[in-house]
Every structure is written in C-alpha cells, then in structure tokens.
UniProtKB/TrEMBL annotation:
Transmembrane segments: none annotated. Signal peptide: none annotated. It holds the Pfam family FMN_bind_2. It comes from Flavobacterium frigoris. InterPro entries: Split_barrel_FMN-bd (IPR012349), TR_PAI2-type (IPR007396). This is Transcriptional regulator.
Length: 132
C-alpha cells in the first residue's frame, strides 16, 4: 500500500490499538491461481511464544481455506474511518482527495484443529457477545 510519508504511522502501539478497534478485516490469499478474499473478524492476540498473531475462523464450506496448505502467504486488510476531502475546503488551489485509515498485515497462516479451534471460537464469540 502506498502511504505518503506525511501520513505514515509506524508506531506499533497505535497500529495494535487500531487492529483491536477495527478487527473486521479482509483475509486475502491465492486460491486455485486466483486471489480470494473473505471478510471476517481477525483478532489481534499473543501466542504461547509471546508473538503477536491474528486469529479468525473460516467455515470449511469456504474453499479459501483449502489453499492454505499449498500457499500459507496471506494479506489481511483492516479499514477505519474515511472521508472525501473537497478541494473547496483548502485556502489554496488543490485537488480533492480521500482521507482514510487502513492497515495491511502480511504473514503466514497456520490452521489449528481440535480443542484449539473450540478455544479460539469461544474467545471470539465471547468478545462480541459482551459488546452486543
């Protein structure tokens, strides 16, 4: 993603807070030679080694998950507030633009099974049930 230097934020605490507040992302990978995207909640968490990870869930009916065994490279995109900025708002000649906040996370996916799936789903559901 192209980010002009003036808008770039590399503060990891800010990025982590953004991911926690805007956890409904787009998970993208290559499936059968084509890019595939699924909109799902992806929760920022810490694994047993202390590394930051994203956790989410895909249905087994979704063909996207099958491709992870062939290619584990993924891109997750998270979006926040955005708005059109009219050139009429400037006190000098300028062009309109669109301001937005987004984070792209590149990584490798790991499929979990058995009790780990149940624990992950429970944690995910509990988070959103509390907020509902």
């Amino acid at each position: 993603m192209f980010i002009p230097d003036i808008y770039k934020n590399e503060n990891q605490e800010d990025i982590h807070a953004f991911l926690r507040e805007n956890s409904f992302g787009i998970l993208i990978n290559q499936t059968e030679g084509r890019l595939t995207a699924t909109h799902i909640p992806l929760e920022l968490d810490t694994n047993i080694k202390g590394n930051l990870i994203l956790q989410g869930h895909l249905s087994r009916e979704n063909p996207q998950w099958k491709a992870f065994s062939e290619n584990d490279e993924i891109l997750a995109i998270f979006s926040g507030p955005h708005s059109y900025i009219s050139s009429s708002w400037y006190d000098h000649e300028n062009v309109p633009t669109w301001n937005y906040i987004a984070v792209h996370v590149y990584g490798k996916i790991k499929i979990i099974e058995g009790e780990a799936v149940i624990a992950s789903l429970k944690k995910l559901v509990d988070k959103y049930e509390i907020a509902s």
